[in-house]
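Please describe our next protein:
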Amino acid sequence: LIQAAVTGRFDQFECQTLHDGQAVWHLVSVARWRDGLAMTLHDITDYKHIEHSLQEARVALDQQAVLVDNALDGICKITRDGRMLYINRAGRQLMGLTPDEPVSPRPWKFVPEDHKQFFEQMIFPTTLTEGQWSGEFVVRNLKTGQRIPVWISAFAIPTPGGSDIDCLAVIVRDIRREKQAQMKSEQVVTP
């Protein structure tokens, strides 16, 4: 108020008051006018509630992003037309990608040649039509060329209205240890 009175410039600020025991937010606009000050108050309480809700939503999204990026299983997001949008840290490591390396536009890049037909004709279409697919599969590490046995859980993510599929999520679990343990137990059982 003093700044507006002294300089004659327009000034705005937010303030909170109590009205019937409830917090009310105002946007106060002050300007020098004639021999005094002109002041307007706009109730912005609803806007402040929305702003607070958006801040809480941002925090929740940030926490979810940390959760997904630090998961021990690979997590991928793929568009309906098969473009890879995201691979978390564990997925990048499994597939042989560095943290800053661009994501391959097509997931088939990580599929060994002898498994591509199954991926293209079974996993991808089944997830799109039935909403999910899970089972054992093999992926290829791009750096080493190593074939890695994995368990895939793929599911459709609906559009906000839920009437259509927005994209697919694929969780890729490395099952090399389980396979090695299974082989050892089979060797022990075999005379």
